Amino acid sequence: MAGLPGGLVREPDQGEPWPTGARVANGREQGLDGVGTRKQKEMDMPDKETHTEMDMPDEAGRAYDVVIVGGGPAGLTAALSLAHCRRSVLVVDAGEQRNLASHGVHNYLGLEGVAPHELLRRGRAEAREAGAALRDGHVAAIQRRATGFAVALEDGAPVTASRVILATGLVDVLPDVEHLPEFYGTSVFHCPFCDGATVDDRRVVVLSWGDRAEGFTRELCAWTRRLTLVTQGHPIDEGVRARLERGGVTVRTDCALRLEGRDGQVAGVALDDGETVPCDAVFFSIAHRTRAELARALGCALTAEGYVRVDPRQQTTEPGVYAAGDITPTDEAALIAAAQGLTAAVAVHESLPSPF
Ligand SMILES: Cc1cc2nc3c(=O)[nH]c(=O)nc-3n(C[C@H](O)[C@H](O)[C@H](O)COP(=O)(O)OP(=O)(O)OC[C@H]3O[C@@H](n4cnc5c(N)ncnc54)[C@H](O)[C@@H]3O)c2cc1C
User: Fold this and answer.
1) Is there a domain that residue 11 lies in?
2) Is 165 in the same domain as 275?
3) Domain end: 287, 315, 336, which one?
4) What is the pTM of this model?
5) What does 205-221 look like in DSSP terms, one character per residue?
6) Are 49 and 9 in contact (CB under 8 A)?
7) Is residue 260 in contact with ligand 1, taking CB distance under 6 Å?
8) Is the beta carbon of 123 within 6 A of some atom in ligand 1?
9) Domain check: are 178 and 205 in the same one?
10) Is residue 37 in some structural domain?
11) 111: CB partners within 8 A, 6+ apart
12) Bridge partner residues of 271 (DSSP)
């Protein structure tokens, strides 16, 4: 197994309590011992009426080879692959995929421009068809047991797993500008690589300040030169201002108060000096926080920015715990998240006991 620089990955054969592969066959748990077995006997099935299309309420209380937390591109790809490998797998998803507000997913080969909910619908159907169990809900806690993990669900009986994949993603923090959320994903964007191509030669307002402002604005020059940088009241270094203005960028140190427009199409940015800058799109440099609570509680090492550290096979620093997608330090893109989910699935499959 490859390790992170600095030897952060602990090898399972170095005295770690590496979980064994409790299996599920035909809905009955087999070979689960210790806490897992005792818990199983105590488990109640959740109320069926509270569940939606994605749910498999009968799955609660079982032992799985793998529980995947998060049903975005990373988690669903891992589920599909592990189900193909005939591993018993449960995906628990709280339904807050990061890009749900977006008009379409770009740079996803074979599905360019697909609506995010359609990508999820297909992914869920494919994972379910392959044999994965999918469940709406929120994983409240995961605890390591002698032979695996106990996974506590917010609204149901716990389940057990031999391996865990964390694919919990990020929460974006939008700038505090009135009406911005109404346009986010249709004409207000944060990712030039994802949505830059949609603003070809059109008027764009860039909301950014500090160290990132120059680089972020220059990045957008690949698609349009009709750029106005608004620094939200923050001062700008005079050298940076001069370089941007030489490149044709208008620089404003005013504060954007409000977006104007209709039906998802922004038409202008109202500034605090009373002027409205007309535009066809807005890009802002985003802040976010990782959903790393479960990883932290399991003892996984995090980066200074709060991402879960993984090795090239998506193994975290905790044996049996893998992570994939935006929760890890990576380029944040759906296809990359999916690829990481696949890598995690291969690593998990190979780490579990052979079915023979
Ligand atoms: C507006 C916007 C537009 C974008 N456009 C593009 C684009 O065009 N192309 C592109 O490649 N990328 C795009 N991205 C980035 C892309 O959406 C992400 O890289 C991708 O969704 C990451 O996938 P993921 O599976 O890691 O996380 P997510 O898709 O965010 O899924 C994580 C899931 O985990 C669930 N979860 C979290 N904690 C728990 C818990 N404790 N229990 C149960 N479930 C939990 C969440 O509810 C969520 O459903 C865009 C992002 C945004 C915000």
Assistant:
1) no
2) no
3) 287
4) 0.80
5) EEE--TTHHHHHHHHHT
6) no
7) no
8) no
9) yes
10) no
11) 105, 119
12) 256
The strand pair at 256-262 and 148-153 is best described as unpaired
Give the total residue count for the chain.
Answer: 356
The average pLDDT across 324-337 equals: 96
Give the pairing type, strands 28-30 and 23-25.
Answer: antiparallel
User: 332 alpha carbon to ligand 1 midpoint, in Å?
Assistant: 9
Question: Per the domain annotation, does 101 fall within a domain?
Answer: yes
Closest CA to 20 of 116, 197, 147: 147
Alpha helices in 256-317 (DSSP H): 293-298
Residue 59's pLDDT is what? 53
C-alpha gyration radius of the chain: 23
147 or 111, which is more confident: 111
Q: Is 333 in the pocket of ligand 1 (CB under 6 A)?
A: yes
Contacts of 94 (CB under 8 A, 6+ apart): 70, 136, 137, 138
Range of the domain at 74: 48-169+291-351
Q: Compute the Cα dihedral for 248, 249, 253, 256 and give only its sign.
A: positive
**Tokens 């399991």, residue located:** 298
Cα separation, 147 vs 133, in Å, equals: 22
Q: What is the pLDDT of residues 71-94, one digit of tens each?
A: 999 999 999 999 999 999 999 999
Atom of ligand 1 nearest to the CA of 335: 11
3-state secondary structure of 315: strand
Distance 153 CA to ligand 1 centre (A): 20
Together in a domain, 53 and 159: yes
Residue 1 confidence (pLDDT)? 29
Residue 170 has pLDDT above 70, yes or no: yes
Q: Which two three-digit tokens encode residue 30?
A: 């087999």
Token pair recorded at residue 265: 């199409």
What type of residue is 4?
L
Residue 344 pLDDT greater than 80, yes or no: yes
Distance of CA 48 from the midpoint of ligand 1 (Å)? 27
